[in-house]
Amino acid sequence: MEMSLARFVLLLGLAAPGPAPAGAAKMKVVEEPNTFGLNNPFLPQTSRLQPKRDPSPVSGPAHLFRLSGKCFGLVESTYKYEFCPFHNVTQHEQTFRWNAYSGILGIWHEWEINNNTFRGMWMRDGDSCQSRSRQSKVELTCGKSNRLSHVSEPSTCVYSLTFETPLVCHPHSLLVYPALPAALQQRWDQVEQDLADELITSQGYEKLLRAIFEDAGYLKTPEQSELAQQEGGTKGLVFETLESCSEAHKALSKEVKKLRSMLTQHGIPYVKPAETSSSENLGSKTPTARTAEHLQGDPGLRENTL
Ligand SMILES: *[C@@H]1O[C@H](CO)[C@@H](O)[C@H](O)[C@H]1NC(C)=O
Ligand SMILES: *[C@@H]1O[C@H](CO)[C@@H](O)[C@H](O)[C@H]1NC(C)=O
């Protein structure tokens, strides 16, 4: 109902000839059109939100799982922020310009754990921001109702959100140990015992605890996090084993090499992505082995195309 009204008013706006201030005034009637910019059929495909990957699986204290699939909005000045626990954080410009800005400020990644307590939800791999991706940390605090209460940007493209919920008011509601499956609790018991017996250092203790949290899916391993960063654009690509990952990497490297040599062959200069640090990519300077090979087999091609 709200959605169709928003679309109808938007249609009016689009149909109005020229820059129509009257149309713009009319549109203000609609409050917080909750699909604006997201499922708006009038926006070109490129303006819709394109997540870089799927969210991590739901994890952590089981009593919070019921928040999954819900979304909570906060309108602050000209932006509406939306937090969908275990899914994403998005930002939507509150304007009726046809190309209103909408962006992903993070996709559910992992918990922040501190002093054996769940302190916040990290949403990473959002839309690009200079050479990095936008990310958001959502802190959960006790409140009367589920409510996104605060958004700020403490450093460039890192957002800090506060989510109030009655689900975290009990002092034990965010403890890690009770949330763990029994097998991991036993591992933790053993680690505590080893520390008490001075069989491990406090550094070793921290490491072993981290491994338990990673195995529980609360924290991501550095490799997993890196993968999430690198695999931007290949949504939903998950590797079951190290082997399948290595295979895919090999295949991709081969593909990249092939494409590079094609560019090189045809004397097309190309810009390398900022992350890779291979040597000069201007083909004429460093023809790859493959190019040389090809040139031997087909000496005429280069002359024809250059
Ligand atoms: C964000 O999460 C919500 C809730 O699961 C989902 O409906 C929506 O499509 C997601 N948005 C993006 C841009 O992924
Ligand atoms: C860590 O948690 C324990 C138990 O929840 C609490 O008693 C202690 O004060 C906390 N320490 C810090 C530094 O927050």
UniProtKB/TrEMBL annotation:
Residues 270-306 are annotated as: Disordered. PROSITE patterns: DMAP1_BIND (PS51912), MRH (PS51914). Residues 275-289 have a biased composition (Polar residues). The keyword Glycoprotein applies. Residues 1-24 form the signal peptide. Keywords: Disulfide bond, Glycoprotein, Golgi apparatus, Secreted, Signal. GO terms for cellular component: extracellular region; Golgi apparatus. It comes from the Eukaryota. The keyword Nucleus does not apply. It is found in: Golgi apparatus; Secreted. Residues 69-171 form the MRH domain. Residues 176-279 form the DMAP1-binding domain. Non-catalytic subunit of the N-acetylglucosamine-1-phosphotransferase complex, an enzyme that catalyzes the formation of mannose 6-phosphate (M6P) markers on high mannose type oligosaccharides in the Golgi apparatus. Binds and presents the high mannose glycans of the acceptor to the catalytic alpha and beta subunits (GNPTAB). Enhances the rate of N-acetylglucosamine-1-phosphate transfer to the oligosaccharides of acid hydrolase acceptors. Homodimer; disulfide-linked. Hexamer of two alpha (GNPTAB), two beta (GNPTAB) and two gamma (GNPTG) subunits; disulfide-linked. The alpha and/or the beta subunits of the enzyme constitute the catalytic subunits. This is N-acetylglucosamine-1-phosphotransferase subunit gamma. It comes from Camelus ferus (Wild bactrian camel).
